[in-house]
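Q: Could you fold this chain for me?
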Amino acid sequence: MGSPLLQFASESGIHVSLKADGIMQVGPVTVTNSMIYGLFCTVLLTMLLIAVARRVTFHPSKGVLAGAAESMVEFVINLLESPFGSRAKAAKYTPVFGSFFIFIVFSNIMGLVPLVGSQVAVGESPLLRPFTADLNGTIAMSVIAIVFVQVLSIKEQGVKGHLKHYFSDKPWNPINFFIGILEVFGELTRITSLSLRLFLNTAVGEILIAVFASVVFSGGKTPLTVIPVFAFEVLVAGIQAYVFTILAATYLGLAVMHADHGEEHEVHHAPDMPKTKVEAVQT
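A: Sure. Below is the predicted structure, expressed as structure tokens.
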């Protein structure tokens, strides 16, 4: 990804960084601009959703925000229906995976606001940096997603059933044990895959917008030229939220698949119940 884009940005005086910048020190913890932005988005999104929930509760007539929130929830349920195989389970897990989807979309779109980036700076560092444009942020989100997958899988089928997902019914078979170790290692690679995919797409978009906006404004061209880039970034924000959510949900769907098949097996192969005395007499 190089360097021509980054080199041009540096020569044009644009602040381009692939890592978050430290803003303040709180004890041993360095508070970065992406952490501040993530906290800001979390608080703002929480307040917005609480306001929408209250409006839906006390004012049954739908407003624009209430309708948008309902449409997004319905979209997430339909999205999760495929990996879980049923609408009931999709609705059950929507609060978890829908939170990831809404936060990623909201965080990425808010990153297009002019206050985010080099426009508002503390020293030479921007005060706000998109949370998903920081690799530490996307790794944290990926770790939380995979931990949720493990916890929900154990809650759904128990510890024994969850371990069967990795080591099958005969874990002490050398082949099964080896395959199980590879499956466990695969969970770590999933964290890497989720975090890098989200980070790179967001970071590249931030650099693209900064460079393109600099060229437009420095050349005295109309700001309307930037609109296609912003529209493209909004599209990418939705796609990345979709990919992250569907992958995380698919991981859980695969983990609980054995439990579902086990229940179906027991139903289809259940032994015949003994007849009662009344049924025996009637027969």
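A (continued): The radius of gyration is 25 Å.
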